[in-house]
Design brief:
The chain is mainly α. It has 22 helices and two strands. α18 packs parallel to α21. The radius of gyration is 23 Å and the shape is elongated.
Length: about 350
């Protein structure tokens, strides 16, 4: 799969591109943040004991059997308890998978009962936190049911499905499969319409999936540039950095550049260079440099937005990399019809 230029930071153990380390821009989807025990039942007390016990093997075997019960209540209880066992004790994740829980949990993701579906999704998410389980989960057929849940599940199921798909996408071979299974449009919808956590989870999943051209095209075709621009414009959203990093991956495509401009992204990026944090300024100038490199029209638009004064300031007081990019962009804007300027700017890594 083709992987293109990315900004530089270490995320989930992988280093990307060449912007200074910005690992805090994204935080990993960890285990679920759903509620714990709905009642003080004997089953809940049993599970609490198992969570602190050194040996939960017997309980795990029983719960896996209950997942295939004819009783939906037994299935629901078993899925809830497996979810929590996997959440609260990391060593249980491999035990649960080896006990045969993955396939019956995947079946529950397609349940007509929304809570059963949610528990199934969340249990799969928690099991996917174990690296050894990722390939098993994907090869057992989890991706398409997770995508369906991402489209039609409860708000919690959608968020946890996005996180589970993110975890599975850490295996490079799964990225295209997830994209081809239809995950990109509902992730874009979650980015646009989800709550605070949903937007964060969607942006993180999109960042992971859009390392290759095929998924970038899908994201742009799904309309991702509109919510990205809107979130970048809203400094109170705490999504400026995340949205900008996703955008930085996409603007290698000419279609993405066109969409960014159509959605009003240029004035938003110029404002970030004026008032954003150092990291935000650096990624904003990197995006504008890519947008302007091959387009006199876009350079003219950026200059008319008043970009040169804040770029000059950034070239004097930004990070070393931001200074370099600001200087390259200033040269482009001051010589908008010069092919030589564009050629020189292309030597600056973005």
């Amino acid at each position: 799969m083709e992987t293109e230029n990315r900004v530089n930071f270490t995320y989930m153990g992988t280093s990307y591109g060449d912007v200074d380390d910005d690992s805090s821009a994204f935080s990993e989807c960890n285990s679920d943040r759903s509620g714990e025990f709905p009642t003080a039942s004997s089953e809940s007390r049993r599970l609490l004991m198992a969570c602190v016990s050194e040996n939960s093997d017997d309980l795990i075997r029983q719960l896996v059997a209950d997942l295939e019960s004819c009783s939906i209540d037994d299935q629901k209880q078993a899925a809830m308890e497996i979810r929590l066992l996997a959440k609260n004790k990391s060593e249980n994740r491999l035990k649960i998978a080896k006990a045969g829980a993955v396939k019956p949990l995947i079946s529950l993701i397609s349940s007509s009962d929304p809570q059963v579906q949610e528990y199934g999704v969340t249990a799969i998410l928690n099991l996917s936190l174990c690296d050894e389980n990722k390939q098993l989960i994907a090869s057992s057929g989890a991706i398409k049911p997770l995508v369906r849940s991402l489209k039609t599940g409860t708000s919690t199921a959608k968020e946890n499905a996005a996180c589970a798909l993110l975890r599975l996408s850490q295996l490079e071979e799964n990225k295209i499969l997830i994209g081809r299974s239809g995950a990109i449009p509902p992730l874009v919808s979650l980015l646009e319409n989800g709550g605070v956590r949903g937007k964060k989870d969607a942006s993180t999943a999109l960042y992971s999936l859009c390392s290759g051209k095929e998924n970038k095209i899908r994201a742009v075709q799904a309309g991702v540039m509109k919510p990205l621009v809107e979130l970048m414009a809203d400094f109170s959203s705490n999504m400026v950095d995340k949205s900008a990093y996703v955008m930085s991956l996409l603007v290698t495509l000419s279609e993405a550049k066109t969409s960014l401009v159509e959605e009003g992204g240029i004035p938003v990026l110029v404002e970030i260079i004026e008032v954003g944090t150092q990291r935000q300024k650096e990624i904003a100038v990197a995006i504008l440099l890519q947008v302007c490199e091959e387009s006199v029209v876009y350079r003219t638009m950026v200059a008319r937005e008043g970009a040169i004064p804040p770029l000059v300031a950034l070239s004097q007081s930004g990070t070393n990399r931001a200074k370099q990019k600001a200087e390259a962009l200033i040269e482009l804007l001051r010589q908008p019809r010069s092919g030589n300027a564009a050629a020189r700017a292309s030597d600056v890594s973005v």
